[in-house]
Each structure stands twice: as structure tokens, then as C-alpha cells.
Amino acid sequence: MSTTKKAVKIPSELPITAKTQSPLCFLHSEILRAYIGEQGAYVYSVLHSRRKQTIGELSKKTGLSIGSLKKLLTVLIQLGCAVYIKNERTGAVSYAHNEEGCWKLTFADDIVRHIREKFGDNHAGVMQNVLLGGHVTVGSYVKEIELKSEIEMVEQSFLDLIEDGWLIHVKGMDFTTLSENFANCVRLANREFMENSSQYTRSDDMGMGGGGGNPRFKSAGLSQLKKTMIIKDIAKEKFLKLYYDNSGKEQLYRVGISNNKRSEGSSMTTLFSDDEDADEQVDDGSKKLKRINGSIPLSVSFERYLKYSRDTHLVSISRHRIGNVSAMVYEVVLDRIEKSTRDMRNVEHIVDRLVADASVGAGSAGSSTSGYDPSTAQDLKKRLELADQQKGMNFGAADILKALSLTKRYELTKDDLLGTIMDNEEDDDVQNSRKRKLEESEANGYKKSKLSKLAAQIKTFDEDEDEEEDADGKNNQDNGFDINGSSSETAELLKLILHHLKLLTTDTKLSFLIETTPGQFYVPFTVLQQQLSTYHKKQLIKCILGNASLRVYNCIESKRLAEEKTIAKSVLMKEGDVRRVIATLTRFGLIEIQEIPRTTDRSAMRSIFAFKLNRTLRSSRMLANCLLFNAGEVLSGVEERKDENKILLAKLSRTDVKGHESELLLPSELEQLNMISSANRADMARLQRLRHMGTHPMFSKSVRHFSTSAARAVSIKTVPGSAESVSTLRVSIKNAGSKSAPAGLAHLLATSTFLDTPEKSALRLKREAELVGGEYSAEVTRDALVLKATFLKESLPFFVNSLASTVAQSSFKPHQLAEIAAPFASFVHQTKTACPKFKALEELHAVTYRSGLGLPLYFDGSKTFEVSDIATFAKSAFQSENVEIVGENVESADLEKFVSESAFATLPTGNTVVAQKQQTFSGAESRIRQAGKTSAVIGFAVEDADAFELVAAGLLSNLPESITASVESKVLSYEGSNLFYFAVTSTNAAEVAQFITTAAKDLKSVDFSKYSKLASALAEKEVASKQVSVPNDYNLVVVGDIDAVPLKSEL
């Protein structure tokens, strides 16, 4: 009997989730849809939604077969759009999205266009093929080429692109995430430290030698913190060494032979063979040439394109702010140092954060209690600023004139330069005294003599270098610069170039150049990248929101905090107009509202509202995300247009129609074809503008903003809600309960939540929640800290961000602990302990477990804690592995998207803490005399919770119907233990004594297996019938009139 496998349906269009996840995912999915089809784009969007998934999870999510997924994942990894993470212990492989490959495809046409303009069509063809292939080897590239002349052109094209930095060798770490690579380095560093510390002897410590140990690995006498710091430093060194490893680049080249000495029997393709032993023999008289190793895979360097894009942007801005000629001089400056500049996205910043988050233990990288020190970022910034001034990055007027003389491909000509700077010395001489004329004449003579010396030095340049550079620009027109010209003319050109360089240092908003010593300059790229971010944001505000919005934005920036009336007076606008502009800026997240109370009771009726800039990452990304989404809409529109006209386009692609369209197509079809062509051209022009406007802010910082790490381990679940419009978010933080901290500290942490964060005050956090119809609450359990928010369904993004900032960014302040958290915690404790049943259960936990689960649930004031104690406990508990988010009546995809974009994604990762089995005790008795009701509790620790649900049901069923006391019997389930108890509470102590005695006897005599149905109803789950073995001993706690209740030995 044969079975037919159900065919997998190929998606005809991307699902709506690819569009709603994020603007970046939408754009990249549309890009991949155009390159590799709907299936590949769909898989990428699913990877983007969850970030880290096994192939089984992907198959379940997408509905595609394992075989199809393997092919698609291979293509995505080849293109650099996906990476894999392998678990060393289990061998399981997970996959995550990688934005680097998608960015290359997004800018592929711009990259190819620039290569064509700079090098030629052959180089552009090579670049295009490498982009479409992801990464290729030269050997496989030339395998299908037969003509030797074409092979030589391809070889030269690859050489030129490698030498100019556009092609780089592929490393193994490119196929996995940075965080996983760093985790491996931490494991290696930990192992290396442990192995070498054992070799470091006491004789080494005393300087006597003989042990052969390295003092760096000394472990005796060192604290655990110091050892951890040493291991982290070793891990950082290993990672940076791995990241900047150029061993593959050294293997890129081989020694070949010139054409006139090549043997007739040798094949050109042997120079690109994948066999490492395929080197040709070279005669003694032959000329050795640099050739490419055909077995090394090559890929396009996106960093190189970012440098070119940055320099093009800087030249455009300088033309707008300084002038056309100065911008052309600046173009020469940037082109001269472009290849040598550091990467725009600095990996050291990412490494410093990984080091701060890493913990050493259990062989993995987890979280640290130290956190990321802001001074580390400041130190890195200073190092980068110094790197901008390193040797080879400084230049003067003579260097620029040399570059203009040696190549003709620059736009600047001598005619453009001459006459651009007016010399007013002659007019000054007429107006000043004779003595002044003489002084100026001497000074001018000194300047001319100095410039003449520079001109004389320029003539000493090597002629071979001149010929080589001229060969590159042989197809360009002569720009008029000649190093062999007269000294006076060269001195005049040097003087003009120097003046234009000085002009570029005068801008107060953007530091195009900085003059270090007279006549010597450098480009401060680190400072410029920060300034460009602000400049570009303001230009987007001006272009999208209008001049009025930019005026208001600049006013708020200058005043830092301003009221509406103050803004209206400063920008000379009506208050109504200012109010509308502020509403728009607030909607885009560019400014924030701050409530300022005027009275001591902080009455909302008498408060005023001021406005300040929103300097968070969200404000920087909002406008960019809008533009990226529009770019994705443009690409989606192009694809939809193709689908609508697929019959006409299919007819047009037929071989018999090509070249005869006007004869074979109907007039209506020709008109429709022209409409499609015009619409596509308009969309491509719009895409070009949106792409550069929207993506520049993504790379305007000096750190990486694309995905470099695997997904955080925050657990996210959704459940259906009982109300249609009301939603609930519940954030449970494991290892933050009362059992994990000194007595009362967990409760103080709970009462300290929803107070101040770096972005919002406690008052603002509460008022904003009330305005959108929501509320917060926090409670502590023995296992976890639980934060809860109830709100209207459409307010989900706001409350996700609020809960995330509370968990990841809470600011614990001493006055809030003394005035709010501690008094409220004491009040809760007094309220709870007034109930004798609660007090009895607390005492039952104490006598059963003593420590851990036996610690008090609430803060009783017996211990004194400082703010630092709360902050330290919070930092150790608030790790991504400990956080579980449960959403009720919310969309799962929306919740995952908002969580990934919130501060939850910044939580440090840590080693998963396995719940330890709690040590238990029995046979104890505790009696607490107290006025009021009397409560008696029998309890003991159990292993099989379901079995003792039968016991609880049996004890309750044997009670008479006329009972007036409050009786409860349950099994409390915790991590590491279960606690069964039977409690009786009443104003009549004799009644308590009667029923507690009856329960003690029933525990020893009743068969509880017959109470399965009742147990299932009470526990609200299926409880199977089974025989129950009840312990012989138990614990007894009595609170109230202890004289009326029998002793444990009397029961």
C-alpha cells in the first residue's frame, strides 16, 4: 500500500506578518522576494520574528518540509542573510537572521554602479556576480571561461577589487553570531586560565622560578571577581584576534608567471585551481606576478560601501554648507584616505558590552552583576578619536596637490580652483602706512618662500608612480594640474588649496576638518558620525514635517525644557500652531512631555507641562522606520504590478515577440506596457530616495545596529482572554522570590518597582497609565516576582515598554526606599499577619523548610537593607532566562515584536539556574498566642502533588455540612518541593480543636484513592485515582487560643 506525501503549498505572496513585524523586516523580505522568491522571503521573515529557531520549529511554523527548508536555508546562508548557532553539548543547530546580506542586496545596484564608474564594466560584472552569489571562489568563477584573455581580465578585476577593499576573504565566524563567537572565546579563556593557574607555583610568586607559570594566571589569593576579570580580558583578546585575523588574506595571493614565460602546455585555470598543490613551476628567468588563490572564498565588503556612502554624503553636505570648490577639494581628501579609515561600525563597542554581560562559570557566557560601565564607552570614543589622527591620516595642501597631479579622475580642475579666493593684500597696502606695507611684504615673502619649498618637494616624486596613476586615468580629461609646472604657479595652487582646507574647518555644526598644526589637517570621523546623526535627523524633520517643525525642534533643543508659551514667543508662531506642531513631533517620538507640579501635593489640576527632546534610540529610529516602510511599500507595489500584468509580461518575454513588439502587440497592450514602464521608473526613483534617506541613520553611529547576537531567552506566551477589549500582561521573574533573598528583601524589591526609571518618574509612569486606561501591580511569591499590567487592547506597545523599562532600567533611590517602599512593605506585612490563617501558614513554611521556602514572604522590619542591596539583588535576578511574559487577550506576533523592540531585549543573559530540591523537616510543633480567631494547620512536604490532591479532597468530604469554621486543604507547588496542608480557622477554638483532631485521625485511616472526581473538580485538572502513602509524621501550627487546641502528641 503506497502513501502519497502531501505537497507543500508554495506561498504566492508574503504573509501579513512579514509586513507588520518591523519596517526593516518588511523591506528586507521584499528585497529577498525579488531575488530568491516568496519561499525564501517567507523563511527569512519567520527567522526575523523569532530570531533563533531549529529547523523543526521552522518547519512547524512555515509548513514547509525539512528538505525544502534545508535548501532555502543554504541559499540564505550563502547570501549572508542567515547564520547558524550550534550547541556544543547537544549538537543541535539553530538558525537566526542576519541583516548584513540583506543590506548588500538592498544597495547592490548602487555598489555595482560605483564600481562601473571607478573601474569599468569588467569589474562591475564581477561585483554583480559576487553580490548575487553571496560568496564565490575565483577558481569556480573562471571554470566556465574558455578564452585566456577573458580569464586574465577576470583575474585583474578580482585583484583590483581586493586591493581596493571591495572584496574580502570569508571567515568561519561570518556564519554565526558575534555573541556565540564570544561565548566560545569565554569558554576557551576559562579553560586556559584553569589549566595555567595550576602551573603557577609559590616559587613563581616569590620570583624564584622553577614553576614555569605565567604571573597572569596566578589564582592563589585572588578573589573570584579578579579571576573573572582576568578571564574576560583573555576572552576579549581572543575574540579581537579572531575578528581581525588576516591569515586568510595572506593566503589570497600566489606567485604566478608573466605571459611571455608561461609554458604552452600549462592551463590558465590552474592558477585558480582549488588544489593547493597546483602551483606552476617558474623558470629562473621568468617574472613573478601576484595572482589570486582560487580556493579562497570571497565576499563583498559592506563596510567598504559604507565608507564610500559616508564620503559621498559628506561631500554633498560640504557643497551645501561651504561651497562647490571646497567640496571638490574635500572629495579629493576623502578619496585619498577612504580605504585606510577604520570601519564605520566598530566591533569593539559590541565586545565591551558582551564582556560586561558575560559571566564565567559552567563553561558558558552568561550575565554579570557588574554591568556595562559608561566610562568604557567614553574610553573607546577617545581611542577612536585618536585613531582618526594616526599616521597616514594627516595631510596638507601638498598631499592634495600631489593627488590631483597624479590622477585625472577627480572633478576638480585648475581652472575651477584659480580665482576662488580673493587676495585683498593690495587694497590693505594702499590704506595702511608705509611701515605696515613693509611688514606685510616681508610676511608675504616668507609665505611665498615656504610655499616655493613645498612646490620644489612635489617635483621630486617618483616618475614611475606618476605613470602608473596616469594610466588609471587615461580615459579622463586633463584637469590642468601638473607637478612639473613652474614653482610660482605651484605655490599659488598650494595657497588656494590651503585656504579651502581652512574653510572646511570653520563650520560650527559639522567638523569637516580639524587643523592639528599649521598646514596639517585630519578628518574627525568619530566626531562627524555623531554630528551627522543629529544633522540628518533635522533635515528629515524639515523635509517631512516642514520648516515650522524644525523651528520648534531647534527651540526645544536650545532651551532643553520649555513650556508652550515660551516656545511660541521664541519661534514667533501662534500658540495654536505651536500646539499642532508639538502634537506631530510627539507622535513621531521626537519630543517628550514632562509634568511639573506646582503644589506640594502634586495635584494634576495645577500642574504645567513642559517639553524636552527625546534622546533615546526610539526617536532616532522613528523617522527612519517610516521611510524604510515606505521603501518596502514601493517594492511591494512593483511586485503587485507584475502579478496584475503577468499575462502581458509573459507574452512580452516570448522569443518571437522580442524585437517585434510594435507589430505583434495591440495598441491597448502597448499603452499598458508604457504605463507599467513609467510606473516602474517612478517607483525606482522614489525607492532610491527613500533608501538613502531612511538607511543613512541606521549606520550614522559608530557602533553596530544590525543583529549581532542570538535572541534573548525571554519566554513569551499568550492565552485567550475572558474580556474582549481588556488585556493583561504578566511578567514573572524567577529567582526573584522570597526564597532567593534574605528575609524581606524580595518584598522590598516588589514595592520598589514602578518607581523612577531613567526616562520617566514614578508620577509620570502612573499618570500616563491612567490616561490610557491601565494600571500596574507587583506581588512577590516564594518562587518569583510577578509584575502585572491591565489595559485596553490597543495600548499593548505602551505597557510592554513600561514593563520593560521597569525590569531593565529601574532606578533605586534612597529617599524612595525610606519614604515609599519600606513603609508600604511594612503596612502589607501588618495587614497580612493580622489574619491568623496566613500567620499559621507562614509558620508552617518556617518549620517545614527553615531556609529557602521557609523564609518569610513579606518584609517584617527585622533586617535593615540599603538601596544597594535591592539593586544588587535585582541585577542578579533580572536576567533574560528568568523572565517569562504571559499575555492575555493579545496577538502573539504583536507581543513578540514589541518585546523584541523593548528594553526586554537588552536584559543580560545568564546561566540557567536549576531549581534545587529543598530540605524538609517534619514532627515540629509551633504555637503562637494571639487575640482573635484561632487557626490550626497540619502540613508536611510531599513529592507527588497529584496524589495529595486526593488527600485534600478526602479530608474536605468527611466534614459535616453544619460546620461554621473556615476549612481549607490544598497542595502548594513550588520549584523544588510541594507542601500539603489542612487548615481550620474559627472564632470558636473548640470547633477548631474538633476538626483538626478529626483530620489527624483521617490521615491515618482513610483510603483516599476513591476521591478522584472530587479532587479533579477542586484542582480544576484531571487527577487519576491511585493509592496514597501518607507520612507517619507531620507539622502542627496553632495561632490564637492555643490552650483550647490539643498538643500534637494528643491528636
Summarize the structure in words.
With 1051 residues, this protein is of the alpha+beta class. Among the domains are: 16-97, Arc Repressor Mutant, subunit A (Orthogonal Bundle); 103-167; 542-615, Orthogonal Bundle (Arc Repressor Mutant, subunit A), CATH 1.10.10; 621-654 and 672-700; 715-906, Cytochrome Bc1 Complex, Chain A, domain 1 (2-Layer Sandwich), CATH 3.30.830; 925-1050, Cytochrome Bc1 Complex, Chain A, domain 1 (2-Layer Sandwich). It has 42 helices and 25 strands. The strands form eight sheets. A five-stranded mixed beta sheet has the order 16-20-17-19-18. Strands 21-25-22-24-23 form a five-stranded mixed beta sheet, with helices on both faces. A hairpin with a 2-residue loop joins β11 (514-517) and β12 (520-522). The longest helix is centred in the middle third of the chain and has 29 residues, at 667-695. The model is unreliable at 1-8, 257-288, 362-369, 426-455, 457-475 and 700-712 (pLDDT under 50). Keywords: DNA-directed RNA polymerase, Nucleus, Transcription.
* Poorly predicted runs: 1-8, 257-288, 362-369, 426-455, 457-475, 700-712
Helix content: 40-55%
What is the name of the CATH architecture of the domain at 715-906?
2-Layer Sandwich
Roughly how many Å is the radius of gyration? 37 Å
What is the overall number of helices? 42
Number of strands: 25
Question: How are the SSEs placed, and which strands pair?
Answer:
Layout: H1 16-20, H2 23-36, H3 38-50, E1 53-54, H4 55-62, H5 66-79, E2 82-86, E3 93-97, H6 99-106, H7 108-118, H8 121-133, E4 135-137, H9 138-141, H10 148-163, E5 167-169, H11 178-197, H12 202-205, H13 224-243, H14 247-250, E6 253-257, E7 288-292, E8 297-300, H15 302-321, H16 324-337, H17 347-357, E9 360-361, E10 364-365, H18 374-387, H19 397-406, H20 414-417, H21 425-431, H22 434-458, H23 463-472, H24 487-503, E11 514-517, E12 520-522, H25 525-545, H26 547-559, E13 562-563, H27 564-571, H28 575-587, E14 591-596, E15 608-613, H29 617-644, H30 646-652, H31 661-664, H32 667-695, E16 715-719, E17 726-734, H33 745-751, H34 762-771, E18 775-780, E19 784-792, H35 796-809, H36 814-833, H37 836-849, H38 867-877, E20 883-888, H39 892-900, E21 925-929, E22 934-942, H40 945-957, E23 966-974, E24 977-986, H41 989-1005, H42 1012-1019, E25 1035-1040
Parallel strand pairs: 16-20, 21-25
Antiparallel strand pairs: 1-3, 2-3, 4-8, 5-8, 6-7, 9-10, 11-12, 13-15, 14-15, 17-19, 17-20, 18-19, 22-24, 22-25, 23-24
Helix pairs in contact: 2-3, 2-6, 2-29, 3-5, 7-8, 8-10, 11-13, 13-17, 15-16, 16-24, 19-24, 21-22, 22-24, 25-26, 26-27, 26-28, 29-32, 33-36, 33-38, 40-42
InterPro entries: Metalloenz_LuxS/M16, Pept_M16_N, POLR3C_WHD, RNA_pol_III_RPC82-rel_HTH, RNA_pol_III_Rpc82_C, RPC3, WH-like_DNA-bd_sf
Domain Peptidase M16 N-terminal: 725-858
Function: DNA-dependent RNA polymerase catalyzes the transcription of DNA into RNA using the four ribonucleoside triphosphates as substrates. Specific core component of RNA polymerase III which synthesizes small RNAs, such as 5S rRNA and tRNAs.
